[in-house]
Specification:
Number of strands: 0
Strand content: under 5%
Radius of gyration: 31 Å
Helix content: over 70%
Distance between the termini: 70 Å
Order of helices and strands: H
């Protein structure tokens, strides 16, 4: 084979390999973006759950205080936002 054909084959192989590497890097970037989005949504959910947990403890403390002081119904209302759906 002549040198021109060998250079053309090597150039074509480099072009194909370069294209595959670029495609692979784009796929990694897409996967990273999807994971970041999932992490962000999980952080928001955790913050909501922590807020609800804190409100639950406040409400439980009010119920205990009410039971010891009054020993009667009606029970105090739950704090604002405690009954909100996730």
């Amino acid at each position: 084979m002549s040198e021109g054909i060998i250079i053309a084959i090597i150039g074509g192989a480099v072009t194909v390999i370069g294209g595959l590497v670029m495609w692979w890097l784009r796929q990694l970037d897409k996967r990273f973006d999807a994971q970041q989005s999932e992490i962000t949504s999980q952080k928001v959910r955790i913050e909501k759950l922590e807020k609800r947990d804190k409100l639950s403890w406040i409400y439980i403390r009010r119920l205990i205080d009410h039971a010891y002081r009054h020993n009667a119904v009606p029970l105090p209302e739950p704090p604002a936002g405690w009954l909100d759906d996730e």
